[in-house]
């Protein structure tokens, strides 16, 4: 899978001079002999490989911190598989974040609230639909799928409406980044209080007290069928986004707008329309993420805020503006968060995700797949 | 009637006035060059023509349409295309994708035909069509930028300093291509630092200074005008 | 007026006199008596006219608004002065509150020790607690600043938001540190002996007798004075800083980082310094918050109350303007408190729609404050009081109106 929106080292084979190219991992290999050892080490640490090695090292340090208890391989493996599932859900949020960040150049602090609204919308739809029989090994019936299909466009439209009311005005005023960030923080609280008003502060479940037995997979890994469904659906949606970005006209226009908004206008792209579709797409993905998260956990109004930091972490790990990066970043965050539960208080999961993000920002601010300086 | 008519416009950024009462015109099939010292407002004029800035006063017409309030994408639909001076390619997209975005409003079939036309003009782009534009050299980027602008088969092409930052050999090559493009019936309005060279290939020229019209006329007569020569052509 | 009211009036007068000193534009020889006279007159009027309950409400309101004013001033020294986008105010506030609590409290003993855990309890005086809060918060700010301030401003916002969450999680989960999920109870109140029956031993008899009418619940009156003095001192200090060469250098960093660097300023170090100053001030706010509410827990330091509201305050008051920071704190805390009444008032209306709605009316307040922020961002992004272009201590305050910048 080749990545849209990113300089790939493989593309440099043609031998052209590359004035803006700064792929440090290549440099670390190719130019190492000409540099001092210190620089070589710095370059290595800042390279993709180096960052991943560091992530593993941090992970190991956490294990030591946790008292280096012997952890059953089986448990670690199960946690890792769960991490992949969590990563899938996070990825849907992270991809939306990265698209908005890329096209509109601001961190959308209300993205978590969109995820929560997605979950609650799905909940509301399921409440009005008759409860059908369970589908195969899954805990849900067709009404969940229907709710998912309804929630995605609904949240997409919510995101679009917010843009029309707030962010478009700010764009027209050429407002500074801080105002966008503030406005989105305000929106996060606005949307969350909307959830409180409509659904109240209590927990909700898609299915109250329905058993959800785990399947036994090879290597003694225990996973619920729902979790496998979540992962499959998340990956399918990510693939769809990828095809949309690389194959369709609107997708290419989105990438172009993210790359250079003014030039996109010059090339005859109606950037306002592109922005509108970006909001709809990222809102819909957020809704899918929220609904899927709701399958495995209870719904709470603050869930959006809890998910926000891991989603940001995934976005930044992967590199802003890179959907493939967001997927990989979210997977790393999901896996590390879950596996850390083997030796740390699980409440610190978000903290671990966050520390990884900070390390990434310091070592390689452009993320694993981002463009340098972007 | 001229193809493009900029009718005594005044405009600028926020509350800073850059252009005062500037008028220019481009006839069909013409190359018109705008020269002038740094800070004369040449690039601002280009942006105003292309709808990136709107005139505070005065009007801009293309054909018989008033485009003063048009957005760039509406102007592109009128087949006037623009090549900015800097940041004029999508660096993270391939050459081919850059061209396709140039023909954003076209049908798939038309895009393929337009691409072939551009590849004919710049064969090197065909060889490198899968390369990311950001990894190309300055001259090749300029070709990608011009090629993208040509995808729509424009009636009028706006070029903002097409020779900026290029080696003399490449400058000649780019100018030569501009003449070739013009020969196919595309009118060209360009802004150039390289005043002598650009007037040599242009039909007519304008001299801007301090955001105002200073001189205008046939390119040849501007080249021969002693005052223009002394002030703006470096002797 | 009875004696109790006179005593209260004196306490209420002190903050008013401080405000008067700032507002009255006269020569100092005249300003001090004028401020004293006005402040005292207003205080007497307030105490005489208002029913006891409302007066107490206003005083408590002012204490919280004053604590928020300190947070807002701290944020202003980061955002207004240097342009740091700190979305993690809650973290520094929490550190200040817990640090000073641990420094001033005693270790739980006996049966209580089974239920309440804390890392230490030093039984230090209040001011030592404030100092410790300032130092620890400043230290944490310093440790955060080194890696994080190199980042772009939007990354900084995300990073600080995350740091505040980590800090909150630590206080929530580490029982040994500050009683974890349970509140830390019984934070000692400074000068509480003023309102206790055997009054402070060091107090002259005449004063002690004079203070006798005050009951325990009137502690808010002396505490208002303490908070007001802190607000005033921090305000004056920040005003002096922003007029000093250091303040000028910080603003230069904010406006044109590259040219500040070319002029020989150590940009990285300046940025760290201003972040630390802000952290210290937020820590002090935390130290003042603890004794007021007596028991604190991690849940007090959620982003809504401790970060979001402060930003709304500073945005409304005017970034870069210290007076605006204080004004914004009072207005927004007023709006926040006022919306509680509003929410009560519309409860019957909401219950027409559904009973559920009526019981959720408190959440309407959040919505209203969020809407207020959006309105500020859209229509008044520079706030009520715009930044004063102060250049030097030696130039007059009122400079010609600044020319609007072409692009912001």
From TrEMBL, chain A:
Residues 1-11 have a biased composition (Basic and acidic residues). Its main location: membrane. GO terms for molecular function: L-isoleucine transmembrane transporter activity; L-leucine transmembrane transporter activity; L-phenylalanine transmembrane transporter activity; L-valine transmembrane transporter activity. The chain crosses the membrane at residues 49-68, 80-104, 111-129, 141-162, 174-199, 228-245, 274-295, 307-336, 343-363. Keywords: Amino-acid transport, Cell inner membrane, Cell membrane, Membrane, Transmembrane, Transmembrane helix, Transport. Residues 1-26 are annotated as: Disordered. The lineage of its organism: Bacteria, Pseudomonadati, Pseudomonadota, Gammaproteobacteria, Oceanospirillales. This is Neutral amino acid transport system permease protein. The keyword Cell inner membrane applies. One of its GO terms (biological process) is L-isoleucine import across plasma membrane. Belongs to the binding-protein-dependent transport system permease family. LivHM subfamily. GO terms for cellular component: plasma membrane. It is found in: Cell inner membrane. It is a multi-pass membrane protein. InterPro entries: ABC_transp_permease (IPR001851), BCAA_transport_permease (IPR052157).
Automatic annotation (TrEMBL), chain B:
This is Neutral amino acid transport system ATP-binding protein. SMART domains: AAA. One of its GO terms (biological process) is L-amino acid transport. Belongs to the ABC transporter superfamily. InterPro entries: AAA+_ATPase (IPR003593), ABC_transporter-like_ATP-bd (IPR003439), ABC_transporter-like_CS (IPR017871), BCAA_Transport_ATP-bd_LivF (IPR052156), P-loop_NTPase (IPR027417). Pfam families: ABC_tran. Residues 4-235 form the ABC transporter domain. It comes from the Bacteria. Gene3D superfamilies: P-loop containing nucleotide triphosphate hydrolases. GO terms for molecular function: ATP binding; ATP hydrolysis activity; branched-chain amino acid transmembrane transporter activity. The keyword ATP-binding applies. Keywords: Amino-acid transport, ATP-binding, Nucleotide-binding, Transport. The keyword Transport applies.
TrEMBL record, chain C:
InterPro entries: ABC_transp_permease (IPR001851), LivM-like (IPR043428). The keyword Membrane applies. One of its GO terms (cellular component) is plasma membrane. The chain crosses the membrane at residues 6-24, 29-48, 54-75, 87-106, 126-148, 220-238, 275-294, 300-317, 324-343, 363-379. Keywords: Cell membrane, Membrane, Transmembrane, Transmembrane helix. It is a multi-pass membrane protein. It comes from the Bacteria. It is found in: Cell inner membrane. One of its GO terms (molecular function) is branched-chain amino acid transmembrane transporter activity. The keyword Ion transport does not apply. This is Amino acid/amide ABC transporter membrane protein 2, HAAT family (TC 3.A.1.4.-).
